[in-house]
Amino acid sequence: MEFQDCFPVWNKLSAAQQGSILAGLTPRRIKKGTVIHSGSMDCTGLLLVRSGQLRAYILSEAGREVTIYRLFDRDLCLFSASCMLRSIQFDITIEAEKDTDLWIIPAEVYRQIMEESAPAANYTNEIMASRFSEVMWLMEQVMWNSMDKRVAAFLLEESAIEGTDRLALTHEIIANHLGTHREVVTRMLRYFQSEGMVQLSRGVVELLDEKKLRALAET
Questions:
Q1: How many helices, marked H, and strands, marked E, lie in the chain?
Q2: CATH 1.20.1560.10 fits 145-218, yes or no
Q3: Residues contacting residue 204 through CB under 8 Å, at least 6 positions apart
Q4: Cβ neighbours of residue 17 under 8 Å, at least 6 residues apart?
Q5: Consecutive 10-residue runs of the chain (219 residues): their mean pLDDT?
Q6: Distance between CA 25 and CA 47 in Å, rounded?
Q7: Architecture of the domain made up of 3-131
Q8: What ranges do the domains of the chain cover?
Q9: How far apart are the two ends of the chain, measured CA to CA in Å?
Q10: What is the sign of the dihedral through the CA atoms of 75, 128, 46 and 99?
Q11: How confident is the model over 92-147, as pLDDT tens digits?
């Protein structure tokens, strides 16, 4: 799969604009667990995922993480180009959740193309709106939903992503995604186990009753 196949507005760019992107493009293979971008001072460039999975999260002063969105095949990450988005007032960290192949587009190259190309600008604005919606959804979850609902929803989402009911997840990993303490997650999972919704073993959470978990998450 080539870059041209993953960039939706490629055919709407001029030959000069296409050449500018290809000249600055850097392919990279990122190992699972690698931090690609960290904080507003790190202008990595825009990331277009060829294959794999990335996680974007924010870090509190106390060191607690909370996932704000994830990136999959063909997804474009704008927040890794913080120097291009000066209105963003919070620091975002991008980490590879799986071994990932991606392309890096230099921020200055992309900014110039956005100024010249209405399709590129519209595409970028759509991504920004989508990411903003995800952040607003997260805020609603944190503010209004109890932790048992959030844990249930996370397990269902993870099962859908991985395509299996047997999830290789530690309680610490779940806590980092949800911005809470490991002990809180452990308490919730033990409750789920007592209700027959999951089976716990070392580093694994197995979903036993998806219907019951979904009912809890959607209550």
A1: 8, 11
A2: no
A3: 166, 167, 168, 169
A4: 113, 116, 117, 120
A5: 94 97 96 88 86 92 87 92 63 93 95 95 94 87 89 97 96 94 95 97 96 93
A6: 10
A7: Sandwich (2.60)
A8: 3-131, 145-218
A9: 41
A10: negative
A11: 899 999 999 999 999 999 999 999 999 999 999 999 999 889 888 888 888 888 99
C-beta atoms surrounding 16 within 10 Å: 9
Q: Are 138 and 55 in contact (CB under 8 A)?
A: no
- Whole-model pTM: value is 0.82
Structure tokens that stand for 64 in this block: 């607690």
Structure tokens at 133: 């919606």
Sign of the CA dihedral 175, 181, 185, 188?
Answer: negative
Asked if residue 76 lies in contact with residue 48, where contact means CB atoms within 8 angstroms, the answer is yes
Q: Contact 162/173 with Cβ under 8 angstroms?
A: no
Cβ count within 10 A of residue 81: 23
**What is the C-alpha to C-alpha distance for residues 56 and 127, in angstroms, rounded to an integer?**
14
The two three-digit tokens of residue 184, written as one number: 């809180």
SS3 call for 5? helix
